[in-house]
Amino acid sequence: MKLLTHNLLTSHVRGVGPRGFPLRLQATEVRINPVEFNPDFVARMIPKVEWAALREAANTLQLGEVPTEPVEGYERDEAFLRKMHHVLLEVDVLEGTLQCPESGRLFPISRGIPNMLLNDDETES
Amino acid sequence: MIDVQTKMAERALELLCLPEGQPCYLLDIGCGSGLSGDHLSESGHYWVGIDISSSMLDAALDRDTEGDLLLGDMGQGLPFKPGSFDGCISISAVQWLCNANKKTQIPAKRLYCFFTTLYSVLVRGARAILQLYPENSEQLELITTQATKAGFTGGVVVDYPNSARAKKFYLCLFSGPSTSLPKGLTENQDAEQATESAFTHQRLPHRTSRRAMVRKSREWVLEKKARRQRQGKEVRPNTQYTGRKRRPRF
């Protein structure tokens, strides 16, 4: 699971709503995958990123310094885009857990796939 | 030999009408072993796939797909932040929402939960193209009703409607203002097929001749009896009393 995906995931346990974001990440196995750099895509994703959640996740994985917010004119700053590309798309969490901040419910991650299946009593439907 | 799934993924991507040359972040619902996802990657997009079967996802891992995979049930809602995706495709998955696997599951509720969360995770103005195999027209209607309730506009595009083998349904949902629905594919694209029947005035002389007759008059009664006799029905013989004026209190 890439950090970009983690930044967009929320908990959909019944009654949690917007308080289900962000999911607290705990990782036991992480891998770095080289991915082709696409500046257009990274630049488009920057506005969607929730920076506090990204910094928290990067700190848990000990990735080093992630900027607090996008630099002015980030679309042309290649160094910044490459750094964000590495953090968002090249870091792959293989084993770990995601925890809902409101209900405390744990979603395990196995082989890079988070298990988001809810039990009957936790679903809205 | 291109796989059917890949062909459908191609068509779904075409129907998505994403801006040219721009890499987008897409959601693949019911991604399975990632056949449709691979096509998205080849077209330069990034994607996240969700599927309920862990064995299919394991197969996707073995095929080394580029998109992120999630194990989840679409009927429980999509666990993403609002405005996460630029578009969504689904190949042969949505009809499964109509099957209630457990007694506690109500298909209509699951469909509604799915469509409302889908509406929320899509960017404003984004599209969702869902290829599905509806069992019958009632099932298709159930699905489209729930999608409309969730706030989507759009409709069903049918490709090759006259071929039993090639016929495919694509539920095209738009989350922004109404746009016109794309046309379905048909067998011969070049010939201008006359799909309407030509209108003739052949029945009109008969209609105009009867316009002169006043309803309920003796003349009208006699004409009606003659018509029914021509049709072979049993008619009472005409006498001096046929169609005579009755007392007002009749």
From TrEMBL, chain A:
Any one GO biological process: transcription initiation-coupled chromatin remodeling
UniProt-listed Gene3D superfamilies: 2.20.25.10
Official protein name in the record: Multifunctional methyltransferase subunit TRM112-like protein
Cellular component aspect of the GO annotation: nucleoplasm; perinuclear region of cytoplasm; protein-containing complex
Annotated organism of origin: Dipodomys ordii
Molecular function, one GO term: protein heterodimerization activity
Localization terms from the record: Cytoplasm, Perinuclear region; Nucleus, Nucleoplasm
This protein's UniProt keywords: Cytoplasm, Nucleus
Classification via InterPro entries: Trm112, Trm112-like
Family: Belongs to the TRM112 family.
From TrEMBL, chain B:
Superkingdom assignment: Eukaryota
The reaction(s) this protein catalyses: a guanosine in 18S rRNA + S-adenosyl-L-methionine = an N(7)-methylguanosine in 18S rRNA + S-adenosyl-L-homocysteine
Positions with biased composition (Polar residues): 183-200
Region: Disordered, residue numbers: 183-250
Bias-annotated ranges (Basic residues): 203-215
Main location: cytoplasm
Pfam families, per database record: Methyltransf_11 (PF08241), WBS_methylT (PF12589)
Coiled-coil regions listed: none
Residues passing through the membrane, by range: none
Annotated ranges, domain Methyltransferase type: 27-99
Cellular-component GO terms for this entry: cytoplasm; nucleolus
Keyword line: Cytoplasm, Methyltransferase, Nucleus, S-adenosyl-L-methionine, Transferase
InterPro entries in UniProt: Bud23-like, Bud23_C, Methyltransf_11, SAM-dependent_MTases_sf
Biological process per Gene Ontology, one example term: rRNA (guanine-N7)-methylation
One Gene Ontology term of the molecular function aspect: rRNA (guanine) methyltransferase activity
Residues covered by the 18S rRNA (guanine(1575)-N(7))-methyltransferase Bud23 C-terminal domain: 173-247
Keyword Cytoplasm: yes
Localisation per UniProt entry: Cytoplasm; Nucleus
Subunit (UniProt): Heterodimer with TRMT112; this heterodimerization is necessary for the metabolic stability and activity of the catalytic subunit BUD23. Interacts with GRIP1.
Family: Belongs to the class I-like SAM-binding methyltransferase superfamily. BUD23/WBSCR22 family.
Role noted for this protein: S-adenosyl-L-methionine-dependent methyltransferase that specifically methylates the N(7) position of a guanine in 18S rRNA. Requires the methyltransferase adapter protein TRM112 for full rRNA methyltransferase activity. Involved in the pre-rRNA processing steps leading to small-subunit rRNA production independently of its RNA-modifying catalytic activity. Important for biogenesis end export of the 40S ribosomal subunit independent on its methyltransferase activity. Locus-specific steroid receptor coactivator.
Protein name, per record: 18S rRNA (guanine-N(7))-methyltransferase
Species annotation: Dipodomys ordii
Gene: Wbscr22
